[in-house]
Design brief:
There is one protein chain. The protein is mainly alpha-helical and 142 residues long. The protein folds into two domains: 1-33; 36-140, Orthogonal Bundle (Cytochrome Bc1 Complex, Chain D, domain 2), CATH 1.10.760.10. It has helices spanning 4-29, 40-53, 89-92, 100-108, 110-113, 128-140.
């Protein structure tokens, strides 16, 4: 059986641990703890739009290809040219360099810009506001 002193010590330790974990959760959830905080509110909304529309298949980390190719430094890159990713023949033969206008059109309707691409089942993003946020987020990653 535990002494009164042991019970008190355990209770105190539990309270301390709960307080410490709560403080860490608060600090880590604050915007200043996040790496994209230097982008400000606009960058945060761009990352949110990217996460909601693109992140299922894409990331912006160099060399990290997933279901789709990584989008690190996509602006200025020749379409279908990223090494170590198996692009569709349509994308490899697209013959253009990604710029903000081309990205806007592609995000809105991939099949219209590159017929035969392998972005299925993604059919496009109709919100021009969200497309602008995503493109700004991708351009910021340069």
């Amino acid at each position: 059986m535990l002494s009164r002193r042991d019970v008190y010590a355990r209770r105190r330790n539990r309270v301390f641990l709960t307080s410490a974990l709560s403080a860490m959760a608060y600090v880590l959830s604050s915007p200043s703890a996040l790496p994209q905080a230097s982008q400000g509110i606009e960058g945060d909304s761009g990352q949110l739009a990217f996460n909601n529309a693109c992140r299922t298949c894409h990331v912006v980390r160099e060399g990290d290809n997933r279901l789709g190719p990584n989008l690190y430094k996509i602006v200025g890159r020749k379409a279908g040219s990223l090494p170590d990713y198996a692009f569709s023949s349509a994308m490899k033969e697209a013959g253009f360099v990604w710029d903000e206008e081309k990205l806007d059109r592609f995000i809105a309707n991939p099949d219209q810009v590159v017929p035969g691409n392998s972005m299925k089942p993604y059919g496009g993003l109709s919100s021009s506001d969200d497309r602008k946020k995503i493109i700004a987020f991708l351009a910021w990653q340069q």
